[in-house]
Description:
Distance between the termini: 29 Å
CATH class: Alpha Beta
Shape: elongated
Number of helices: 4
Oligomer: single chain
Structural class: alpha+beta
CATH topology: Yope Regulator, Chain: A
Order of helices and strands: HEEEEHEEHH
Number of domains: 1
Helix content: 25-40%
Number of strands: 6
Amino acid sequence: MNTAMEIDVSGNPIDLMEQIAVQNEWLFDRAGEDEMHLSFPGRTEDHHLSFSWRADVETLQLAAQLEVKVPKLRRTEIATLINMINEQLWLGHFEMYPDSGQIIYRHGLLLRGAIGATPEQCEALIQAALEACDRYFSAFQFVIWAGKSATEAAATVVYECQGSA
């Protein structure tokens, strides 16, 4: 992410997210004063992020929609996989809408008592979402398309390589 230009950190954090989107040349749509959607290419899929600001609880929420729809017959196994993945995550969580089978990653930035969000906080929010979506996307695909169990799919993404051979 590019943070070279001056960014205004006061006020609505959606304004800050819009500034970050502009300077990174990401496509975005400001759906209202307290809501924004943005899209940009990722490593494994295009990323579609939505941001919502709730002033009453002083929280900026991010929802990252994965480009995958779970067939009804695989939803129980995906729900098991989501539970396994969520146990590993330090920030945010995955969930699946039961009616549509849509998987999203959700995370919130609590700003109670703060003057405003900083560019670094907003970038960390986005980075956490990108890392989680990129890391676990293939596990969801293994269950949906390859018919693997949640345990088998989780085993493919649980271990991170340290160093190089």
